[in-house]
Amino acid sequence: MGRAFLAVMDSAGIGGAPDAAQYFNGDLRDTGANTLGHIIEACAAGEADEGRSGPLRIPCLSALGLERAIALASGLELPMPTEEPRGRWGAATEISRGKDTPSGHWELAGLPVPWDWHFFPENDASFPPELVTRVAEAAGTEGILGNCHAPGTAIIERLGAEHMQSGWPICYTSADSVFQIAAHEETFGLDRLLTLCEEIAPSLHAMKVGRVIARPFTGTPEQGFERTGNRRDYAIAPPRPVLSNWVQNAGGSCFALGKIGDIFSMQGFDELRKGKDAELMRHLGNLVAEAPEGSLTFANFVEFDAIHGHRRDVSGYARALEWFDREIAGLIDNLRDEDMLVLTADHGNDPTWPGTDHTRERVPVLIAGTGAGTLGQIGFCDVAGIVATHLGVPVPG
Ligand SMILES: O=P(O)(O)O[C@H]1O[C@H](CO)[C@@H](O)[C@H]1O
Ligand SMILES: [Mn+2]
Ligand SMILES: [Mn+2]
């Protein structure tokens, strides 16, 4: 039976989504976006030389069949490694409508999202009056500040002083399905902020807003404000059992690494280990050494997306891929005979594309430890099926 390690390279898409024309970055459709394909091309053309140089060096991902997966997904013709892949490789297509992180992960875990997420409009007042009233009541204030789309650091700079003076919470949103509340840890109070978020979360989840996020900060108008590490996400829970539940129900342990805990509201997980990507890689290495037989380790590496994809930083994304490739090669050497390591992604975020939003794409599925050969074109849900079958866990439905 062995163990299963499932690592999501957040936003590492490979193009070719059949419905890409229905998705936009600004005015431009996502048709043709190809995160990894375009990074490989940019590196080969010498256009991604900041902090690195030349063609993208990812021998481990290549040996597992990445270039073949890209060609299968999108038809993009890249120089092909001459050797046959040593892993199983394929391209997965999403059916959930959102090109967001929870949609991608839930479907990879066997649950296509059965609804449309609610996104708040980019109007002067993003939130409906009833919601504003409900939040102010829960906060015990006369009103709220913000009520708009904003980057989190910019809005505390703009409204931090007014917030400290009036005591009103700063509420804002973004292109994601989120309701975020920024408040000062001392003058508003951290516990009060967390209680407020917890209290209003059920009504936002009922509206199909994916997450309420507490964004505490400290500082002064004179010295400037800074967000603290006490961020808390109150995410909507998956409405049905997912891969981690199936594994747990069959008696296996499940470990969540990084954002996986929030994405699934810890549904089906025994333990959460957090940190930056480098730390997560160490957690993953420790679990390769220690995780019990029959267990699932589910990891999300968010920096590809959060630090490089949204900032359209091709060199940075390439550096992150080269780092990831080296680290994963080391982990594969330590797998036990019966183990499976699956590398995949949740959506695209092509750093060569206009805009700053995710791109609708197919994703690679690369599997180490269980032989070689193609998986062909599969669905996101098949990833859950492959992992469950490997662990001998029944797949419902
Ligand atoms: O700009 P900040 O506050 O970091 O917000 C970002 O973080 C949120 C959740 O990850 C995203 O929806 C985006 O809005
Ligand atoms: Mn994501
Ligand atoms: Mn993102």
TrEMBL record:
Pfam families: Metalloenzyme. Gene3D superfamilies: Alkaline Phosphatase, subunit A (3.40.720.10), Phosphopentomutase (3.30.70.1250). It catalyses: alpha-D-ribose 1-phosphate = D-ribose 5-phosphate; 2-deoxy-alpha-D-ribose 1-phosphate = 2-deoxy-D-ribose 5-phosphate. Mn(2+) 2 binds at residues 305, 310, 358. Pathway: Carbohydrate degradation; 2-deoxy-D-ribose 1-phosphate degradation; D-glyceraldehyde 3-phosphate and acetaldehyde from 2-deoxy-alpha-D-ribose 1-phosphate: step 1/2. Keywords: Cytoplasm, Isomerase, Manganese, Metal-binding. SUPFAM superfamilies: Alkaline phosphatase-like, DeoB insert domain-like. Its EC number is 5.4.2.7. Binds 2 manganese ions. Its cofactor is Mn(2+). GO terms for molecular function: phosphopentomutase activity. Its main location: cytoplasm. InterPro entries: Alkaline_phosphatase_core_sf (IPR017850), DeoB (IPR010045), Metalloenzyme (IPR006124), Phosphopentomutase_DeoB_cap_sf (IPR024052). Residues 3-393 form the Metalloenzyme domain. Mn(2+) 1 binds at residues 10, 346-347. It is found in: Cytoplasm. Belongs to the phosphopentomutase family. Isomerase that catalyzes the conversion of deoxy-ribose 1-phosphate (dRib-1-P) and ribose 1-phosphate (Rib-1-P) to deoxy-ribose 5-phosphate (dRib-5-P) and ribose 5-phosphate (Rib-5-P), respectively. This is Phosphopentomutase. It comes from Sulfitobacter aestuarii.
